[in-house]
Amino acid sequence: MTQIDGLPPLSEVIRAHELSAKKSLGQNFLLDLNLTAKIARQAGDLSDCDVLEVGPGPGGLTRGLLAEGARRVLALEKDPRCLPALAEISDAYPGQLLVIEGDALEINPLEHLNPPIRVAANLPYNVGTELLVRWLTPKDWPPFWQSLTLMFQKEVAERIVAAPGTKKYGRLALLAQWRADARIVMELPPEAFVPAPKVHSAVVHLTALEKPRFEADAAVLSGVVAAAFNQRRKMLRSALKALSPDIEDRLRAAGIPPTERAEQVSLEAFCALAREMARS
């Protein structure tokens, strides 16, 4: 295995610090530094960017990001066992790595980052979707980030990029594609990780749009989409009837047949319906 820096292989780091992945923290360590460097490259040119990383573990992706020229990396790590290994990386890259111990759901990273900012992470399985939703639904848009390069379980990644008419198409696809360009850029088999998970993984790259793809009020759109997909097997005239007494008229005004089901409706049509619902 080719080394990307002067630090020991990750397998040695894990042995030296007696690290083992904790299921309770959603950990699966990616030890191949060639793969972590390849993931880092999917984030684009990092030389003029600060990078936010969540759940670095023993630092495989952290090293990839720094080796690929990231201006600075902020790594948020909940597991104190990993801090000594990350400190060794910090020593090897003076002034380029800041490690903060804590829960990424509770830390404001903007206190420690300077724009432009990109996010790159092998997200812990148990918080990955929640973090993505938070990053896609800030109060103001454009967001603090230029792009997100994130590893998920493959099934979650496929839900993010899903198209209408497919079983995986739903709220997550609409949320991501309304405000970002999203594509799967890598797939990884279970054996790439230690311990090997039961599922395949995939890296999704999302690039923030300057403004949402179609006009709609975020809260109204979210409510419409949630109601539609909470009863995705029902026709929309039934699934959405609680939102408005004249829902069939509003569906027709948005160009949607009332007998359609949620998975058949495009993002553009959902946005048109949200605009109709926002009218008094």
From TrEMBL:
Q: Output the Gene Ontology terms for molecular function.
A: 16S rRNA (adenine(1518)-N(6)/adenine(1519)-N(6))-dimethyltransferase activity; RNA binding
The catalytic activity of this protein is classed by the Enzyme Commission as 2.1.1.182
Answer whether the UniProt record assigns the keyword Cell cycle to this protein: no
Matches recorded under Gene3D superfamilies: Ribosomal RNA adenine dimethylase-like, domain 2 (1.10.8.100), Vaccinia Virus protein VP39 (3.40.50.150)
The reaction(s) catalysed by this protein are: adenosine(1518)/adenosine(1519) in 16S rRNA + 4 S-adenosyl-L-methionine = N(6)-dimethyladenosine(1518)/N(6)-dimethyladenosine(1519) in 16S rRNA + 4 S-adenosyl-L-homocysteine + 4 H(+)
As recorded in UniProt, coiled-coil segments are none
A GO term from the CC aspect: cytosol
**UniProt xrefs under PROSITE patterns:** RRNA_A_DIMETH (PS01131), SAM_RNA_A_N6_MT (PS51689)
Which domain of life, per UniProt? Bacteria
| InterPro entries attached to this UniProt entry | KsgA/Erm, rRNA_Ade_diMease-like_C, rRNA_Ade_Mease_Trfase_CS, rRNA_Ade_methylase_Trfase_N, rRNA_adenine_dimethylase, SAM-dependent_MTases_sf
Every copy of the Ribosomal RNA adenine methylase transferase N-terminal domain together lies at: 35-210
Q: Where does this one sit in the cell?
A: Cytoplasm
What's one Pfam family here? RrnaAD
User: Which keywords, in A-to-Z order, does the entry hold?
Assistant: Cytoplasm, Methyltransferase, RNA-binding, rRNA processing, S-adenosyl-L-methionine, Transferase
> Where is it chiefly localized?
cytoplasm
The residues that the entry says bind S-adenosyl-L-methionine are: 28, 30, 55, 77, 103, 122
For this chain, the family text in UniProt reads: Belongs to the class I-like SAM-binding methyltransferase superfamily. rRNA adenine N(6)-methyltransferase family. RsmA subfamily.
Described purpose of this protein according to its UniProt entry: Specifically dimethylates two adjacent adenosines (A1518 and A1519) in the loop of a conserved hairpin near the 3'-end of 16S rRNA in the 30S particle. May play a critical role in biogenesis of 30S subunits.
HAMAP family for this protein:
16SrRNA_methyltr_A
Full protein name: Ribosomal RNA small subunit methyltransferase A
Q: Which gene encodes it?
A: rsmA
